[in-house]
Design brief:
The protein has 69 residues and is mainly beta. It has no helices and five strands. The chain has a domain at 2-49: Single Sheet (Rubrerythrin, domain 2). The chain binds zinc ion. Zinc ion binds at residues 5, 7-8, 10, 27, 29-30, 32.
Length: 69
């Protein structure tokens, strides 16, 4: 059956017999990772993988030119 991406409304052709709850699929339109939270009826939820990406936390100033030797 077809489900729509909650992010971009792209039509995703997902066979509910081929997927299981907890599986993730990726929207080929916007690249959003979607978790299958139910198969009857098919329900998708956005996986917020980016939330756990603490890239902003690791700010390092390697180019700091202080001579504290
Ligand atoms: Zn999408």
């Amino acid at each position: 059956m077809a489900a729509t991406c909650p992010e971009c409304d792209n039509l995703l052709d997902i066979d509910e017999d081929e997927v299981e709850e907890g599986e993730t699929v990726t929207c080929d339109e916007c690249g959003t990772e979607l978790e299958i939270i139910a198969t009857e009826p098919l329900q998708l939820a956005v996986v917020d993988a980016d939330v756990y990406d603490d890239e902003d936390d690791s700010v390092r100033h390697d180019s700091d030119d202080e001579d504290e030797d």
